[in-house]
Amino acid sequence: MFKKTKIVSIILIVALFMTMLFTGCSSQDTSTNTDKDSEKSSSWPEKIIEVIVPYGAGGDTDFNARTYTKYLEDVLGVTVVVSNMTGSSGSIATREVKGSEPNGYRVLLANSALHVNEVSGITDFSWDEAFEIVAIGAKHSGDLLFVQGDAPYETLEDLIKDSQKRPGEITFGGDIGGTTHVIGGMLNKAGAEVTIVDQGGASGRLTGLKGGHVDIIPNPYGTMKDYVDLGDVKPLALLNDERNPHFSDIPTAIEQGHDVNMPKVYFFAMPKGTPQEIVDKLADALEEVSKMSEYQQDIEKAYYQQPFFLRGEEAARYMDEQRNMFMQFKDILR
C-alpha cells in the first residue's frame, strides 16, 4: 500500500513539473513572438511593397496609385509596385488584400466605390471590418451633370422642373450598380423625376448623350472639355463640395439648392490587424508625398485635382460618412 502511494506521489510530482515546464516554454515563446513582431514593425519596410488597385491600368484610380508610388519609393527607400487586379466591380482585389498577411507589404488603393460593393451585396464586409485605414490620399475633381448643347436648360433647377412636368420621360445615363447609379437616385431624391438607364462607363455615357439616347449624364470634366468647348454639351452642376478652380464658372448642385453631391476619394488601406506602427509609417510617407509640389502638379495637370489628405480618426470619420450616404440608396442598388 505504501509503495503504491509513493508511486502515485512521484507521478503527480512529475506531471506538475512537466506542466510548469511547458507553461514556462509557452510564455517564453509568446514573449519571443511579441518581440519579433515588434522588431518587424520597427524595421518596416525591408522589401518590395505591393499596392493593389481594383481597376485596370489607365484610369483615375490607377493614376492616383502610380503617382503616389512614384514618389513613395524615395521616401520609404524600397521598391513600391502597382498591381491591377480587376473583376467583380473591384471586389476580387479587395478580398485579396483583406485575406493577405497583415505585415505591411500589401496595400489596397481603392476609391469610394468600395462602399457600393457592400451596399449592393457584392461583398459582405464593410471597410472597417476588413481593413486598417492608412489615409485618404486624394480626391476626385468631381463629376458634373451634362446635357446636350442645345438642351433648353441653363441650370439644374430648369431640368428638375421640366422632369416634374414630364415624369419619367427624361433619361439619366448611369452605370447600374455603380456610383453614377447612386447619383441618379440622388437626383430623383432632390425632386427630379428621371428614368435611370444603364449607359456604362464614362465613354459609354458620352456616346449615349451625343447620340441622343439619354438626356443627362454624370461625367468628369476632363472627358467632356473638348465637347464643352465645341458647344456639343453643356454642364449644369458640379457634384462636389465646392467649385473647382479650373472650371470655377460651373456652380455645384448644392449651391443651386439641391443635395446632389458625390465626392469621390482615393484611400490607402492595409489588412485588418496590421500593426499600428506600420500603418503610421506609411501614413507619414504618404503625407510627405502629398505636400510635394511635383506631386501636386502631376494631379492638377492630369485630372484637375487639388491636394487632399486625411489620416487617422479624420479619415475614418470620412469613410463612415460616405458609407452611410451610400446606405441611403440600398433599395435601388439591390
Count of strand segments? 11
Helix content: 40-55%
Average pLDDT number: 91
Q: Kindly report the oligomeric state of this protein.
A: single chain
Taken from the alpha-carbon principal axes, the silhouette is: elongated
User: At the fourth CATH level, what is the homologous superfamily of the largest domain?
Assistant: Bordetella uptake gene, domain 1
- Biggest sheet character: 6 strands, mixed
State the CATH topology of the largest domain: D-Maltodextrin-Binding Protein, domain 2
CATH top level assignment of the largest domain: Alpha Beta
Strand order of the largest sheet: 2-1-3-10-4-11
SS-based structural class? alpha/beta
- CATH architecture heading of the largest domain: 3-Layer(aba) Sandwich
Low-confidence stretches: 1-27
How much of the polypeptide forms β-strand, as a percent range? 15-25%
Element-by-element helix/strand order: HEHEHEHHEEHEHEHEHEEHHEHH
**Gap between N and C termini:** 77 Å
What is the number of independent domains? 2
Using only C-alpha atoms, the radius of gyration works out to 27 Å
Q: What's the total helix number?
A: 13
